[in-house]
Design goal:
Blueprint lengths: L1 H14 L2 H4 L5 H14 L7 H8 L3 H13 L3 E3 L6 E3 L2 H8 L1 H21 L3 E7 L2 E8 L14 E3 L4 H8 L3 H13 L4 H17 L2 E4 L6 E9 L5 E10 L8 H18 L14 H7 L1
Antiparallel strand pairs: 1-2, 3-4, 3-8, 4-5, 6-7, 7-8
Helix pairs in contact: 3-5, 4-5, 7-11, 8-10, 10-12
């Protein structure tokens, strides 16, 4: 895959000595990205002098960057004061990326219908290197629900969505992600544990895990696949138990599978029906 080749080439660049890596740098681009990344973490905005100080740049350098970014619509000067803040242009660009744009167009009506049927929150996530990001979320119609911040990066191995996305990746992509996890400091024992769980998920066709994030929540996640059988996204339901539940978790998971299958069919994919009742894939594998 081109994506894998790109990741490999980037990894090779990282492995090169610092003297050679500098040949790949574009100073003006680096400065502009520094400003964007800085402002992304400061919602109240910063003045030009504050930007210069935090980026360790001169006011003249920052002025040129700020003028260009403002002209292109990536940042804006706040009307009350001299602070600059990010606009939504970066977010808009991400949503127009073709695979995400198609998903965010097709998924919400299906997710909304599912949420109303099972009275639970529903989220859709995609893989981003060794992390995942939620690109769509439908709140539960019940008085109490669970919410995940859209766009927030989370480690791929530590969430139900992430492990489903990892389980249904091509083998070359899977190995790259495991290697990236190892380089980030994940222990060999943890990698082995994740591999076993990912293999069980691939065999079962879903993730089903209780209390991983919060007590009382069972995360159920199914892949959304395309016509080539490659995973596009993970459709996840953080099932919050309540004494007022009208739909039990098995019925909710069955409806969730139908939604994931419907969404997959839009992209030409055919999702394999899981064995019922659903249970922890690792425990199921151990018992067979």
């Amino acid at each position: 895959m081109d994506w894998v080749k790109d990741k490999v080439s980037r990894r090779e660049i990282v492995a090169e000595p610092e003297a050679r890596r500098s040949a790949y740098l574009a100073p003006a681009l680096e400065k502009g990205l520094d400003v964007l990344e800085l402002l992304a973490g400061v919602p109240e905005g910063l003045t030009q002098s504050q930007i210069a100080q935090r980026c360790n740049r001169s006011l003249q350098e920052v002025y040129r960057m700020v003028v260009s970014l403002e002209r292109r619509g990536y940042i804006m000067r706040w009307p009350q004061g001299d602070t600059f803040r990010l606009t939504m242009k970066l977010y808009d660009l991400a949503l127009t990326f073709p695979p995400i744009a198609r998903l965010t167009d097709a998924a919400p009506p299906i997710m909304r219908r599912l949420s109303l049927e099972v009275e639970q929150s529903i989220l859709l996530s995609v893989i981003d290197g060794a992390t995942i990001r939620s690109i769509a979320h439908i709140d539960s119609p019940a008085p109490i629900g669970f919410r995940v911040r859209l766009g927030a990066a989370r480690p791929v191995a530590r969430t139900a969505s992430g492990r489903v996305l990892l389980a249904f990746q091509p083998s070359a992509t899977q190995e790259w992600i495991f290697e990236a996890m190892a380089q980030s400091g994940v222990s060999a024992a943890e990698l082995k544990r994740v591999r076993r769980r990912v293999e069980a998920i691939a065999q079962a066709g879903y993730e089903f895990i209780c209390g991983e994030t919060f007590e009382g929540i069972t995360d159920v996640s199914f892949p959304v696949i395309d016509r080539k059988g490659e995973v596009l996204a993970a459709l996840t339901m953080p099932f919050l138990r309540s004494v007022a539940d009208k739909v039990d978790i098995q019925r909710a998971a069955a409806a969730q599978f139908e939604a994931a299958a419907e969404l997959s069919s839009i992209f030409g994919g055919e999702l394999r029906a899981p064995r019922s009742p659903l249970s922890d894939p690792l425990a199921r594998t151990a018992s067979t």
